[in-house]
Write a structure and sequence with these properties.
Helix content: over 70%
Structural class: mainly alpha
Largest sheet: none
Number of strands: 0
Radius of gyration: 20 Å
Number of helices: 8
Order of helices and strands: HHHHHHHH
């Protein structure tokens, strides 16, 4: 299969260049959206401010069901930023001439590691090192030697789960539509583009909700749940 044309490919060659340039482009788009939404704040929001406020309220509502409203707001900057960045990256796959950076394992693995390190850091900061890792041993002391390595493997597998789920779905959709474009470039790809749009939104939501779930498991290991 020949290399797919990209606009950024006109300025350089190589897989690493194309990946890095599309990551930077995604980040710049997110920054422009954020700047546009906050450049002229109004009591009655309009335009991009209205869209962003609706998005942030939706993220808080999502997190409230998982971790409580106060903590949902606390972790809003991380989850909302991840959501915007992943969504913009995913949507590049439906725009001709661009390549979705989320279809590269290097990006998705990096994001998964960031989430993994952050929720463990929050768990240790909130509960202390001893108390945090003590819950890895399970409720029955006699089973601790068995439960501890299982929990460690379970937490490490979250990196693979987060990264490969996003990467696999976006890359798979990209390849699927590329094949359709080669076979029937006019009408047949349209359902594929609809599928990619749905997948882009769905995979963004899954990554965000799992981030909240992992944070909830780390900071509420004593069983407390906050609703305010």
């Amino acid at each position: 299969m020949n290399e797919v044309f990209t606009f950024l490919g006109l300025f350089g060659e190589g897989h690493t260049y194309l990946f890095a340039s599309h990551v930077i482009l995604s980040a710049l788009i997110v920054l422009v959206l954020a700047k546009t939404a906050t450049s002229s704040l109004q009591i009655v929001p309009k335009g991009m401010q209205n869209i962003m406020e609706a998005y942030l309220q939706g993220v808080i509502a999502m997190g409230t069901d998982v971790i409580g409203k106060r903590r949902a707001k606390k972790y809003l900057p991380l989850v909302a930023t991840l959501g915007l960045f992943i969504f913009v990256s995913n949507m590049m796959e439906i725009i001709p001439g661009f390549e979705p950076p989320s279809g590269n394992i290097n990006m998705t693995l990096t994001l998964a590691i960031i989430v993994f390190l952050y929720y463990n850091f929050e768990g240790i900061r909130k509960n202390g090192v001893i108390h945090y890792f003590a819950h890895f041993m399970g409720p029955v002391p006699v089973l601790a030697p068995l439960m501890f390595p299982i929990e460690i493997v379970s937490h490490l597998s979250r990196i693979i789960s987060l990264s490969f789920r996003l990467f696999g779905n976006i890359k798979g959709d990209d390849l699927f539509v590329a094949v359709l474009l080669m076979l029937a470039p006019w009408i047949a790809p349209l359902p594929g583009f609809a599928l990619m749009s749905f997948s882009a939104i769905l995979q963004t939501f899954i990554f965000m909700i799992l981030t909240y779930v992992y944070l909830a498991g780390a900071v509420t290991i004593a069983g407390e749940y906050e609703t305010i």
